[in-house]
Amino acid sequence: MILLTGATGRVGSAAANTLLQAGVPFRVLIRDPGKFTLADSSIQVVAGDLGDDVAVADALKDVDRALIVMGNHPDQARLERRFVDLAAGAGVSHLVKISSMEAAAEATAELPKNHYDTEQHIVAQGLNWTFLRPNYYMQNMLMYAASISRAGQFALPLAGAKTAMVDARDVGAVSAAVLMEEGHAGHIYRLTGPELINFHEVAQRMSRALGSTVHYVEQSPGDFREVLGQFIHSAWQLDAVCELFAEIAKGSLEHLTTDVESLIGRPPLDLEAFTRGFSSAFAPQS
Predict the structure, then answer these.
(1) pLDDT of 10-29, one tens digit each?
(2) Residues 271, 165: contact at Cβ < 8 Å?
């Protein structure tokens, strides 16, 4: 049996859909089952979250493989490591963790450092493991959909830094492939989209897809923090996100790989296809 955490999120839901389409039975651990949109009697749903040991223990019964995916949170490291301990005790043989491309022994930013330390905790348990380290998610651009639609622009504090944006749905598809197949234990996969581009080029790609001009405004870190603070009210999360973006501006995501295509047998989705798929959100207001 396969267990998915985070199955209502972008990566987890894509993994669930891929498993369902492949006819592979699986179970999901979900805080609010009403938010899980895949209605199929073959899917086992356990209500609860990673902070509920009883629900986690119930979800782990007879599970061989599990996906760990969790959004940024002050307790993320503790909760993920607790899940690892419970999984090891329940006899889970293989854990797949959604990590960070910046995760490394020398990482100093809190988010990638937490991911790396959790990876090492998994290794120490003696379980089979696979770590998936994605680049910048294309879905992050949806946070700027209103600005793009209204004013034809988006602002980020990334200057000319490049990323190889990846669609979260591809990361979910990779997750499912690794859970279904043999041969991935002990591997770290760095997941990127098909091209390494800066955000001026991102604006150009989006402009072509939408048929209207989109501009990228190079924002100062201070202005970014001020705007972000209007939406993020957790001081911890605000600090962590600003710290992470400072690392991206220095080039931490300037990496391009072919791992996605190798793992799912097709090229990763490109930014123009992503933009067209969400054109109703990005298109200029009439």
Answers:
(1) 999 999 999 999 999 999 99
(2) yes
